[in-house]
Structures are given as C-alpha cells and as structure tokens.
C-alpha cells in the first residue's frame, strides 16, 4: 500500500483541512461521514463543562454532503449541569459557514456504580482481532487514497464484498487531527458510520444507500487500540432502510449505533 497521509485532518488555526483519508465511496469530491462525525465528538469534548465526564449519546444529522474542503466546528452548551449536560456541535464549510452536519450530545459525570454481581460485565466482543487477516481494499473504493485506508479492517464475520450482516474490528492508521492523539470515542465515530457499508444488503454497483443520520448510545467509554462493530442492515420496501450495530472494545460491548438510510437505484 502506498504511503498514506499522517492524519485525517490538518489543523490550521480554527480551520480543519481534510486529507484524502476522508474521501468516501459515493463521490470523489465528498468525505465519508465517519471522520466528520468524529470532528463533532472532538468539538463536544472541547466545550464540555463536566470534567472527566463521558458522552452517553451522540445524535448526528447529516444535513448535506461534506466536501473535501476546509471546515470548522462550533460548539455550545445547551443545558449545563454538574451531573448531566447537553451540548450541540455544528460542522461548517469554512468558505461561507454553510452548516454541513450537526450533533447533539448528552454527557454525564463518570462515577463508579456498585452494581449487583454480574451486571457490570459487558457482553463479549466478536472473535479477534488477533489472528484475523487484514481486509483488502473493496472494489467500490477505487483508490487506496480514501477513507478505507484511514483504518485497518479485520472481519470476524462477513466481508465488504459479501451481502449481509458483518462483524469487524478496526484500528486507526492515522490520528484524526495531526499532532493530537485520537481519543477512542473519536475512533469509534470514524468507524461506526461504516456499519451500513460492512453489512450492506444491496449491490454497490446498482444502488446507493446513504445515511442521513448517525446515532450512538454508549454504556461506557470505549478503550484501547482496537474497536469492533457487529452490524445488520434492513432495507424497507418504501425506499428507506435502517442499519443497527453493537459496538465493542476488547473487553466487550460499549454501546450501539443506528443509521437511517435513503435507498435509491443508481442512474
């Protein structure tokens, strides 16, 4: 594989300049929604008021395609609190402040909970990633210079090219923003927007199935280098679909995600 950029975004003051590692499969001039979603999580954490708190829900609306162009983020606290707070973050096109994506997040204080025996153990993760082969670039990504190369992919079930449910592990191959270590929750957002791609039920060459949102609910903060998703897509007969996934780290389940999909035949 050719050398890849050293980050998904380069910071330039308050501007965030995307690299080719953010390029999606639908349009060579547009980003995959995973990396911009992670930027929104980053913006939420920067504005948060509860020190050492945790994101427990992040609901992201994709208002329009995100171009491969400089971006910036804005964030504000909607509901302050000592134990629970709500924030909003918006991703803007730097050239004219057009809103591209918007997220609302709930954060809570993190405190040890004395749960009954057995309830504190997370559901086990899928098998792997040790011993699983790295997935080759799928045919619908025409170049290594794309979102696919931002992550290393290892499938425990299914495959990019196989229709149906899938389980895969990923690790970031470059930080989200140059010069900053990527937080596990940022990795999670980069990854889980691809749940509808890894579990696609329709032929990529004949259909588009673009998500208009991404909603993530977390039971606990993700940890470690490797994260996984177990995903299933269900198309509906009225031109919409839903993708649901459980999200894991090496210890087990950390939460779930869902996406609403617009289904359409390619012209």
Overview of the molecule:
By secondary structure, this protein is mainly beta. Helix content is 10%, strand content 39%. The chain contains 3 helices and 13 strands; from the N terminus they run ββαββββββααβββββ. The strands form 2 sheets. Strands 3, 4, 5, 6, 7, 8, 9, 10, 11, 12 and 13 form an 11-stranded antiparallel β-sheet that branches. Strand 4 (71-79) and strand 5 (84-93) form a beta hairpin. Helix 1 (34-47) runs antiparallel to helix 2. The longest helix is centred in the N-terminal third of the chain and has 14 residues, at 34-47. It is globular, with a radius of gyration of 18 Å.
Strand content: 35-45%
What is the radius of gyration?
A: 18 Å
Average pLDDT across residues? 94
One letter per element, helices H and strands E, the order comes to EEHEEEEEEHHEEEEE
- How much helicity do the residues have? 10-25%
The main pleated sheet reads as: 11 strands, antiparallel
* Coarse morphology: globular
Task: Based on the model shown, name its key terms.
single chain, 267 residues, mainly beta, eleven-stranded antiparallel β-sheet, two-stranded antiparallel ribbon, 3 helices, 10% helix, 39% strand, globular
How is this fold's topology laid out?
Elements: E1 9-12, E2 15-18, H1 34-47, E3 54-62, E4 71-79, E5 84-93, E6 98-108, E7 151-157, E8 166-172, H2 184-192, H3 195-198, E9 207-211, E10 213-218, E11 227-235, E12 240-249, E13 252-265
């Amino acid at each position: 594989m050719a050398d890849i950029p050293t980050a998904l975004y380069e910071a330039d003051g308050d501007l965030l300049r995307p690299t080719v590692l953010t390029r999606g499969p639908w349009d060579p001039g547009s980003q995959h929604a995973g990396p911009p979603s992670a930027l929104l999580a980053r913006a939420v954490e920067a504005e948060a008021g509860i020190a050492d708190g945790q994101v427990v829900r992040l609901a992201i609306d994709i208002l329009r395609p995100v171009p491969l162009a400089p971006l910036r983020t804005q964030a504000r606290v909607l509901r302050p609190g000592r134990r629970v707070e709500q924030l909003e973050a918006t991703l803007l096109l730097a050239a004219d402040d057009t809103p591209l994506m918007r997220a609302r997040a709930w954060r809570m204080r993190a405190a040890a909970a004395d749960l009954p025996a057995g309830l504190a153990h997370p559901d086990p993760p899928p098998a792997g990633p040790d011993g699983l082969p790295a997935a080759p670039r799928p045919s619908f990504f025409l170049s290594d210079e794309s979102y696919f190369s931002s992550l290393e992919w290892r499938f425990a079930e299914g495959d990019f090219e196989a229709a149906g449910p899938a389980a895969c592990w990923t690790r970031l191959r470059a930080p989200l923003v140059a010069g900053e270590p990527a937080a596990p929750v940022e990795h999670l957002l980069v990854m889980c927007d691809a749940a509808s791609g890894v579990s696609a039920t329709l032929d990529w060459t004949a259909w588009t199935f673009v998500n208009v949102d991404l909603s993530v609910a977390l039971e606990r903060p993700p940890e470690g280098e490797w994260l996984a998703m177990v995903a299933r897509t269900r198309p509906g007969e009225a031109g919409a679909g839903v993708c649901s996934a459980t999200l894991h780290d090496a210890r087990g389940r950390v939460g779930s995600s869902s996406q609403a999909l617009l289904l359409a035949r390619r012209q």
